[in-house]
Amino acid sequence: MKDIYILGIESSCDETSASIVKNGSEEIVTIISSQIDIHKDYGGVVPEIASRQHVKNITYVIEECLEKAKMKMEEIDAIAITYGPGLIGSLLIGLEAAKTLSFIYNKPLVPVHHIAGHIYANSLVKPFKFPLLALVVSGGHTEIIEMKKHYSFEKLGGTLDDAIGECYDKVARVIGLEYPGGPKIDKLAQIGKQTYKLPIPLNDNSYNFSFSGLKSAVINLAHNERQKNNEIREADLAASFQNVAISSITKKLRKAIIEKNIKYLIVAGGVAANYGLRNEIDKLTKELNIEYSIPPMIFCTDNAAMIAAAGYYAYLDGRRADLSLNSKSTDILN
Ligand code: KG4
Ligand code: ZN
C-alpha cells in the first residue's frame, strides 16, 4: 500500500504546532511553538493574546515543519486540522491556515476533534488493540472513552464540573506556583507526605468525576491556615491533593476496565505526563494483567503530531471537510 503522509495543524489553546506523520504511526517532524512564557504572567491563558500569537507563529511553524521534513506540500496526502474544542479565536487561526493550504494545493481537509488527537498520540507509540479504554486527562477534559474500532468513540463517563488539569492549575495558584501549575504540583508531591485530609470526590458507582469540591477544599484549607498564621507545608499539601485526585480517577478506571472486560488501556492528555498517575496506572494494569500505553511527555500536552495521527484514521474513515468548516467549542467527540 502507498504510504500516506498527513500534515497536522493544532492551535486550539496556547501551542501553535505543525507535524508530518506517516501512516498514522511514524512521526517525521513536529514543530511546537509554546506560549507558556507569555501567559504565565497572567496566571493562565489569555484568549486574545493567544490568538495574536498564533497569527504570528502559524506560517513559520508550518514552513519549518516542511523544511525540516525536506518535503513539499505536493508530497502531502491530506491536511488534518483541529476544529475544536478549544478557544474559538485560537482555533480559527490554524483552521484558516489549513483551509488555505487545502485550497491552494488541492489537498483533502480532514477535521479532527482535539480529544481524538490526544487519544491518537498513542498510535505514535504502538498499534491500538480493540476493544480499548482511553482515559483522557487534560486541562479541559477528564473522560473515560471506549473504542471498539478505529475512529469510533463511546463516552462512558466524564467530569461533572472542572477538568483534572484545571483543578491542578487552580490548586497550584493557591499555593503560589506559576501557570501551568500541574507539573509543579506533581514535582512537589513526590517529596511531600500525605498529611492533609481532603474529601474524596464523587465516590459513587458511576464512571463520572468531579473536581470542584476537591479544589474548593484545598482553597479553604489554605485560607484557614493563612488566617491562623500557620505555615502551609506546600509539598505535603501537593502530595495530599495528588493522592486524592489520582485515586479518584484510578478507582473509576478500575471499575470500567473490569465491567467492560478491557485488555488494553491508553492514557492521553496533558495530565498523562503526571508522574503519580503514570505510577498508579502501571500498578493498576499489572494488577489487572492488561496492556497499556502512555505517550512520551512531549506528545502528552498539545501538539500537532497527535492531530496528524488521528487525521490518518479519520482520512481512512472517509472524513472530509470543505472550506465552510468552522471552529467549534463543542465537547462531543465523534
Ligand atoms: O492537554 P493539554 O496540553 O491541554 C488541554 O488540552 O487542556 O493539558 C494541559 C494541562 C494543564 O492543566 C497542565 O497543568 C496539565 O495538563 N499538566 C499536568 C502535568 N503536566 C501537564 N498536570 C499534572 N501533572 C503533570 N505532570
Ligand atoms: Zn489538549
What features would you describe in this structure?
This protein has 334 residues and is of the alpha/beta class. It folds into two domains: 5-120 and 299-316, 2-Layer Sandwich (Nucleotidyltransferase, domain 5), CATH 3.30.420; 129-294, 2-Layer Sandwich (Nucleotidyltransferase, domain 5). The chain is built from ten helices and ten strands. It has helices at residues 36-39, 47-69, 88-105, 114-120, 164-175, 182-191, 212-227, 234-259, 275-288, 305-316, and strands at 5-10, 15-22, 26-34, 78-84, 109-113, 132-137, 142-147, 154-158, 264-268, 291-293. The strands form two sheets. Strands 3-2-1-4-5 form a five-stranded mixed β-sheet, with helices on both faces. Strands 8-7-6-9-10 form a five-stranded mixed β-sheet, sandwiched between helices. A hairpin with a 4-residue loop joins strand 6 and strand 7. Helix 4 packs across helix 10, helix 5 packs parallel to helix 7 and helix 6 packs across helix 8. The longest helix has 26 residues, at 234-259. The protein is globular, with a radius of gyration of 20 Å. The chain starts with a strand and ends in an 18-residue tail after the last helix. The mean pLDDT is 94. Residues 13, 138-140, 165, 168-169, 180-183, 186, 269-271, 273-274, 301-302 line the site of 5'-O-[(R)-(carboxyoxy)(hydroxy)phosphoryl]adenosine.
In a nutshell, what does this entry contain?
This protein is α/β, with parallel strands linked by helices and 334 residues long. Helices cover 43% and strands 18% of the residues.
Number of domains: 2
CATH architecture of the largest domain: 2-Layer Sandwich
Structural class: alpha/beta
Number of strands: 10
* Low-pLDDT regions: none
Number of helices: 10
Query: What is the CATH C-level name of the largest domain?
Result: Alpha Beta
